[in-house]
Write a structure and sequence with these properties.
Helix content: 25-40%
Shape: globular
Order of helices and strands: HHHHEHHEEHEHHEEHEEEHEHE
Strand content: 15-25%
Structural class: alpha/beta
Strand order of the largest sheet: 1-2-4-5-7-9-10-11
Largest sheet: 8 strands, parallel, barrel
Number of strands: 11
CATH architecture: Alpha-Beta Barrel
Length: 349
């Protein structure tokens, strides 16, 4: 398809055009599949839910012989109410809510981060931060820029990996923009037919910075073959554990505050074996609702695939364009805050 779009394509001169066109192809080819899957899921009966408390209670052994041992242990820290251990000092969540602008600064079609010139984009980010502060004055807002630094492609490319790595210059431009707002940065990876093991080491020099974190997009992870954009990919708990282990090692080696991992999800099959995802004080995992559509569909997707398998923290994406198709409207901060659990990571695309 890219050949038909770019008959005179020159890979040296037209790298930006490749990014723009391939992204447009992927977005349009996924659109119908997303709508069909989410509509089908909305019509499916919801499985019974098990609360964290119920799940914990079910795992407790009530052997009387254990009573003395349990009594001798220090009382649990009841100030920490989220799954997993309490994080190391300097953790962002849940002390702050993160508000991120997503996209690629080289493309106007991948999200708000690249759709507007940097000064106008940052001004709009300021406006959204103010909206969220007004909606929840008790929770400080941490601005963020979430940049796609490995983009899935519709053609094999070098090594038949179906992905394109962005340059260091692009990443450093995002870091410079973030400095203007004391924003943190997320580097997002769409592996195509590559792997996290292959892509993450290249990002070490950025991920070892205290203000830089990681996002991984299962939609474009084609571990079972196929072309990105023609079917929805997946990550398993093993993949996520590799990413968090990678971050944990950086935290230990460089004495950093806990890292954040954002995991995109909008279907059941995108993330498998969530019960095997490991939690550790050195990182914080956000299961991020990445589906688009009208408010009713977005709420239902969040309930089915995020609330039912939250892992640790939860996130919610708002699409300036796709959410408003077909006469729908963009959800307000107050509506998102009414969700259970309350998302602590908010992303605008």
């Amino acid at each position: 398809m890219l050949t038909r779009l770019l008959p005179n394509f020159n890979p040296t001169k037209n790298c930006l055009t490749l990014i723009l066109c391939s992204t447009t192809v992927l977005a349009s080819s996924c659109m119908q599949e997303r709508e069909a899957q989410q509509a089908a899921q909305a019509a499916t009966p919801t499985p019974p839910e098990t609360t964290i408390a119920q799940d914990t209670a079910a795992r407790i052994k009530t052997n009387p012989a254990d009573t003395a041992t349990l009594a001798s242990q220090p009382a649990a820290d009841t100030s920490w109410t989220y799954p997993g251990p309490k994080p190391l000092p300097g953790a962002i969540l849940p002390e702050k809510r993160i508000l991120a602008f997503y996209g690629n600064p080289l493309s106007k079609r991948m999200g708000i981060l690249g759709e507007l010139p940097p000064d106008k984009m940052l001004q709009k980010l300021d406006e959204e931060v103010a909206n969220w502060k007004a909606a929840d004055p008790a929770t400080p807002v941490q601005p963020a820029l979430h940049a796609i630094v490995v983009t899935a492609q519709g053609k094999p490319g070098r090594g038949s990996k179906y992905r394109l790595r962005m340059t260091d210059k692009m990443i450093e431009d995002v870091l410079d923009m973030a400095k203007q707002r004391d924003a943190i940065v997320f580097l997002d990876v769409q592996v195509g037919r590559s792997t996290l093991q292959e892509e993450l080491p290249r990002l070490v020099k950025y991920l070892q910075m205290p203000n830089v974190h990681l996002g991984i997009d299962a939609e474009f992870a084609m571990k079972n073959g196929g072309v990105p954009g023609r079917r929805i990919g997946s990550f398993d708990a093993k993949d996520i554990n590799f990413a968090t282990g990678f971050l944990a090692d950086l935290v230990t080696e460089h004495q950093l505050p806990p890292k954040l991992l954002i995991v995109h999800r909008f279907t059941q099959g995108m993330i498998t074996n969530t019960e095997n995802i490991k939690l550790d004080p050195r990182y914080q995992v956000v299961m991020h609702m990445d589906g688009w559509g009208g408010p009713a569909l977005k709420k239902d997707t969040y309930r089915r695939y995020i609330k039912n398998e939250p892992v640790q923290f939860t996130g919610f994406k708002l699409f300036y364009k796709n959410d408003t198709r077909g006469g729908h409207r963009l959800m307000t901060p107050a509506e998102v805050l009414a969700l259970t659990p309350k998302p602590m990571y908010i992303q605008y695309q």
